[in-house]
Amino acid sequence: MRLLSFRAVAVSIIIAAAAVPFAPACGGASGDAETPALDGATDTFVEETAPSMGTISVEPATATVSVALGATGSQTYQVFATKDGVKTDVTTSCALSALDPSFGSFTGAKMTIIARGGDTTVQATCSGQSATASLTVKLTGSVVITGTPAGAPDLFAKASSAADAARMPKLEYPLDGAVAPLNIPAVDAQWTKAGNDLFHLQLSSKFLSIDVFSNVEDAAIDEVAWKAVARTAAGDTLRFTVEGLLSTAPSQKYPGASVSIRMSNDVIDDTAIYYWASSKGDLMTQNFGTTTPPTSVKGDCTSCHSVSRSGTRVGYSRCVGGSCDATYLGFMKFDATTKTWNDTLDANGKKFKGSYSTFSPVGYPYKTDDQSLALATLDGGKLQLFDPDTGKTVASNVGDIASDGGKLSALMADWSPDGHSVVFVQTPKPGQSIDLDGGSLTTMTFSSDGTTHTFGAPKTLVAGPLTLPSGSYGNLFFPSWSADGKLIVFNAARGSWRAFDDASKPGQRLMLTDATGSFKTELTNLNGAGDHNVTWPHWAPATSKDYYWVVYSAERDYGHKLTAANTAKACAANGVKQCKQIWIGAIDKTKLGAGDPSSPPMWMPGQDLGADNISPYWTLPATKVAK
């Protein structure tokens, strides 16, 4: 991906004014000797009391202003008072401001407008009275990829459009219909060459039109320009359209079909995604919205991890000494002073054979993060409560009640955000602690006085088989509570969730239910057409205004930059055909319980395309919350 240089082009601004009448003061009388007047001799407005102004208005009522992408524009306003048919300029007696300061600011009557589009309001205030004007900004610009011939824009301007399917570039990424958080880093658009060597990508929405020129089959504008584009398209669709031509025969250009994504108003800020780069054996983390490379939290094949909702604790399991005949539990805690992750239970000590874990949230049963409980799956399919600060077991009834005295297996638990419930997977076969089949989603209550910890009788939330267009799904697993405790996302498979000859063969799908199990919905748009080994769903750590956000891992193409044909050899193992990558999907709050509420996903920026990235946990960055 190469960053772009941009050339200044115009932004249009349209302003419509509204007049607001002055209200008479209490006890005032028309013609009173103390009523202020306009001094006709000096043509200066003399303010004594508000009623003499009559009404005020902002002009021009409509205006068009040109601004360059990456630069600023300006518009000068006048404010008038009208009384008894007399209109007087009172601009110098009024204060002007943009109600949304992200559009610009005023110096006197002159507004300096920054490069962003959308609707806002300009307001004039005079002695406590006000008038408003509506403001529409349209952003345009021209961007040329570094290394692309400077004359590319002129070639496309002079070329005639032609229809030839073999020569029309096809957009491969982003995915049509995807929804993006507002603060997602710059999207790297990708397309096919189709026999061309120069390309024109247009980004357009209601308030913007940006032209990008490239001599390769992808383009991403720099982060400053992208922020202006994203902010302009917020709450609207952002359309990507590409056309190509051959520089040795530039008289004709070949336009391809458009794809559109929706730029949401949701900002997912101060969050981190922790994931396992399994082909490299490292537990990684990256703050969402940043473009810096991910950093390693722990190496040594630290797998099957979980992260607390507070972001300061990690539970994991590990193959020790190069042998995966068994995996062992470990816990880590973040040290706010040294800014390091430290083992409180080192799996290499082989103290507890186990796999999946989850942590009690801050608030219950303990008010702060100074104390916590960890609930983990032991080898043999039983749940056990731990003190993650010491690595010692904690007495409770969970071991027997969750597995019905060892008759069933209990694994993959997730603690609810309020701390009063746990969702986990029960299977009819004892002894399952990593791989499973026949799993059902099960819940149980949790109560504690800080010393005695009691779990309620398990209740089935969702049981298979679920009949979907792609088959019968009898194995349900990987449940995860949403941040508000209202929803649970989970996996469904046609059989055992891992197939070592072909990892996608079980047809893993993401499913959605609510906390009562009243509906079971396939997230078809997130899953995509076909089988893509879709697993490990988790939620963003807070709910946003318009969408819930889910992060998960899938074995699907990222444009042409990652496919089965060019995948790293290290990823092609254990039935995986190409490097799994982390994807982010939106769940529309207005569509819950009425069909598929999801949209196609966005690739999480900053990943290593040569790594198999799985098991993403979305939580708070430890560096921001640790005390």
Main attributes of the structure:
627 residues, mainly beta, Immunoglobulin-like, 5 helices, 5% helix, globular, disordered N terminus
Percent range of helical residues = under 10%
Count the E strands.
Answer: 51
The biggest sheet amounts to:
12 strands, mixed
Tally of individual domains:
3
Count of helix runs: 5
**What does the radius of gyration come to?**
30 Å
Could you say which structural class the secondary elements and strand pairing correspond to? mainly beta
Low-confidence stretches: 1-51
Instruction: Write down the CATH class of the largest domain.
Output: Mainly Beta
**Apparent shape:** globular
Q: Can you name the CATH architecture of the largest domain? A: 6 Propeller
If you consult CATH, what is the topology of the largest domain?
A: Neuraminidase
Mean pLDDT: 90
What percent of residues are in strands? Answer: over 45%
How is this structure best summarized?
With about 625 residues, this protein is mostly beta strands. It folds into three domains: about 10-25 and about 40-135, no CATH class; about 145-265, Sandwich (Immunoglobulin-like), CATH 2.60.40.10; about 365-620, Neuraminidase (6 Propeller), CATH 2.120.10. The longest helix has 11 residues, at about 225-235.
Commentary on this structure:
By secondary structure, the protein is mainly beta. It folds into three domains: 9-24 and 39-137, no CATH class; 147-263, Sandwich (Immunoglobulin-like), CATH 2.60.40.10; 364-618, Neuraminidase. The chain is 5% helix and 45% strand. The chain contains five helices and 51 strands. Strands 1, 2, 10, 13, 14, 15, 17, 19, 20, 22, 23 and 24 form a twelve-stranded mixed β-sheet that branches. Strand 22 (236-246) and strand 23 form a beta hairpin. The radius of gyration is 30 Å and the shape is globular. The model is unreliable at 1-51 (pLDDT under 50).
